[in-house]
Design goal:
Strand order of the largest sheet: 1-5-2-3-4
Distance between the termini: 24 Å
Oligomer: single chain
Helix content: under 10%
Length: 73
């Protein structure tokens, strides 16, 4: 699994990397107490905004979700 990324370092989606006006990505977040499954939403508008849906003001770190398991054969 990948390392934790500080929200001060970078966010899951940034305006420069977005191809749509609105995008969201599922991630794992840490708020200093709990690790949770979270959704990060971002939009390219005149007033660019981005938020973690849960614990939006207290998230300090995030990481991408691991890849899904390979299908059993």
């Amino acid at each position: 699994m990948s390392d934790w990324i500080s929200v001060d370092e970078r966010l899951p989606l940034v305006e420069d990397g977005m191809t749509a006006v609105y995008a969201e990505i599922d991630v794992i977040t840490w708020d200093g107490d709990d690790v949770i499954f979270n959704c990060f939403q971002a939009g390219r508008t005149m007033a660019f905004w981005s938020i973690f849906v849960d614990n939006r003001d207290s998230v300090t770190h995030w990481m991408p979700l691991p890849p899904p398991p390979e299908e059993l054969k």
